[in-house]
């Protein structure tokens, strides 16, 4: 019998054919042929290894005090169940010529449902004099009503426990014009004076970005983002003479392949 026939029979078995059909296939085809057909089905329905790259945000930002460049980049390689994720986010102050923040994460991701992955790995902050390496545990996925959610907890090599949660949504105004609301909140279990960070919720961000997809993989956008320091972290900012809340205009590109 041709391999295509074995594959068809394997599909019947893999996707819920009646027991009689499975018994029939097992009775007439040797086990090695059935196993090969099942492996072919698994490969063709999600077993391939793929690569994905996305610069979700690559933007210029301007507020009342500073001008900066920021990015939020992620990439993954793997199959449907297991993937290696690389994430990077940073903000570069154009006035001082230094990074306000820069983080790189390497994570193993395992699907725990059709819509959610659990992720664990390492992250490193590239801050002059205050660099830290973190163990990471998080969950990422697509919630009901198509909200994209990314929640992570970080335990640093200094014993500091912090975390962040982010949610995004895409509202299609037309087939190419898309409004993307985004909100994020960060927290710290303890005060971290070296980083001017207090305990509890440390800051909140809320933004809107309007992009136009020239092609699906390439979309310029404009928007606005509001940031507010919270609790003891706001006290640190106030003592340093900095604003506790800022509103920035942004313009950038969203790219993926």
- Outline, from the CA principal axes? globular
Estimated share of beta-strand residues = over 45%
- SSE order: HHHEEEEEEEEEEEEHE
The largest sheet has its strands arranged as 1-2-3-4-5-6-7-8-10-11-12-13
* N-end to C-end Cα span: 40 Å
**The CATH H-level homologous superfamily of the largest domain:** monomeric porin ompg
Q: Which stretches of 5+ consecutive residues score pLDDT under 50?
A: 1-20
Number of domains: 2
The CATH top-level class label of the largest domain: Mainly Beta
Radius of gyration: 24 Å
Assign a percent range to the helix content.
10-25%
3D structure, described in words:
The chain is α+β, with helices and mostly antiparallel strands and 257 residues long. The chain has two domains: 3-47, no CATH class; 50-256, Beta Barrel (Porin), CATH 2.40.160.40. It has helices spanning 3-14, 19-28, 31-47, 231-239, and strands spanning 50-62, 67-78, 82-93, 98-111, 116-125, 132-143, 147-156, 161-168, 171-172, 177-188, 200-212, 218-229, 245-256. The protein has a twelve-stranded antiparallel barrel with strand order 1-2-3-4-5-6-7-8-10-11-12-13. Helix 1 packs antiparallel against helix 2 and helix 1 packs across helix 3.
Question: Tags for this entry?
Answer:
single chain, Porin, alpha+beta, 257 residues, 12-stranded antiparallel barrel
Question: What's the short story on this structure?
Answer:
This protein has helices spanning 3-14, 19-28, 31-47, 231-239, and strands at residues 50-62, 67-78, 82-93, 98-111, 116-125, 132-143, 147-156, 161-168, 171-172, 177-188, 200-212, 218-229, 245-256. The chain is built from four helices and 13 strands.
